[in-house]
Design brief:
The protein is α+β, with helices and mostly antiparallel strands. The chain is built from 18 helices and 23 strands. Strand 19 and strand 20 form a beta hairpin. Helix 7 packs parallel to helix 8 and helix 8 packs parallel to helix 9. It is globular and about 65 Å long.
Length: about 575
Amino acid sequence: MNMSILRSRLKTWGLSVAIGLYALPATTHAQANDGTDKYFEISKNLEIFSNVFKELNQFYVDPIEPGKMVKTGVDAMLNDLDPYTNLITEADAEDYELQMTGKYGGIGAATRTNDAGDIIISDLFEGGPIDKAGIKPGDIVVSINGQRIKGKSSDDVGLLMRGAPGTKLTMVIKHPLNGKESTKEITREEIKLSSVPYASLTGADKNIAYVYLTQFTQNCGRDVRNALDSLKRAQPALKGVVLDLRSNPGGLLDEAVNVCNIFVDRGQLVVSTKGKNKDWDKQYKTQTTSWDTEIPLTILVNHGSASASEIVAGTTQDLDRGLIIGTRSFGKGLVQTVRTLGYNSRLKVTTAKYYTPTGRCIQALDYSHRNDDGSVSSVPDSLKKPFKTKIGRTVYDGGGIEPDVKMDDERLSPLAITLLSKGFIFDYATQYYYSHPTIAPAADFTLSEKEFKDFENWLSGKDYSYKTESEELLALLKEKADKEKYFDNIKNEFNTLSAKLSHDKKQDLNNNKAEVINLLNNEIVSRYYYQRGRVINKLKLDDNDLKKAIMLLLNTQEYKSLLKV
């Protein structure tokens, strides 16, 4: 789960965490004075904080909420650091375990909230408790265990749904089209989200192994290796491997080493860490025999590939073991360690930076030097240092992993973002599902021209207005011109330009037709074939990065030429 979600779920932090700050090591007189000054400041300010809290609790005119107030203080303290240093409260423990293990106790469903405040089932875990109960995406959750949930936050709903395996809950569901309500009794189970939801043979001759790795959870290295073993048994004459790390946010550092170990042999340095505390200066090397050190390898990355994904991509690049394809990765080169605080709370704190085998750190943002307004700047190109790979290719630090083969940055259009955020893609898929008992296999399904026209007609009259970037800049110009008393002088020119920039929604729909159809395909397919269907549909019908990877793996000469100085 995204770290910003964890931060938003902070609960209460007791002041007893400060107890561990007082033990001072034996040191020289000068060092002792420095240490004494530092710890005196800590002690003094903690006492001030405690006294302010007590005075407010006793004398403030209205009742205060102690947990909420302390949370605000902790939020402010952590917000001054990097976004990966988080408090994990007892209530957040399950979310943390899900990140690390891919497992949790619950019913196997995700929810979304519509504009009316209704809680809607948005995704199902195939074969999970809610799937077994016959509940479908689009169904509206009326109540859980007798508690009506309209208007509740996603966090509150998630807490009601999760629980120990074997425990039961009663859910009242309303059909999204006819409004009929039904009651379902659901038994919670341990839900294990696979780190490798899809692997297959691809290419014209089915001789390329494709593995999709979504997150670096426990044993994901083993899962990748098992997937490759299975594909190798089906096709002994493999020509190459595509490892898809796009939008993989990372996870366990040890598992990044294990994934690298699949393609590089025992004893190879994969990553080193360095921190203020020398205890965090460590080297991580591969520990076992590889799966295959010679087979051609491509790794797909994008802006969402972070942390452990970047370790794997960076190590592969540094060792010239394979080609990185896609767009520049996220740029997270920080390592977190979890510290126990008591009361079932933990602090996930950034303790070090990691470095790939060449010695480069790919951290893109400098959190230690904030701008005057509190914002954080990217590492400027002028400060990025060059490093040499094993055979002498030049790579750089300080900005994520730059692919060896750069692809177009396929960001969503403003129209597509609006259709998704307002739920129109989701709602149309719900309607489509109930009017089509079956569809083509996930790999083949796509909306016909007539069906897209039906969507266009369904959308007419609905508000999916938005501002283009040009319109937003023009609005900002008007605001500034008004403030500086210049607008009257440019009013006519402004109105002319505004009229020219004004977009036609219907024309925009046609201009972005291919993109919208892909989004609709993906959402509709998921209603019949779950998450696996989403992956298959996108890979077969809409994946230029994968097509490029396959082409390079089959073109040995071009593949090798890109791995030369």
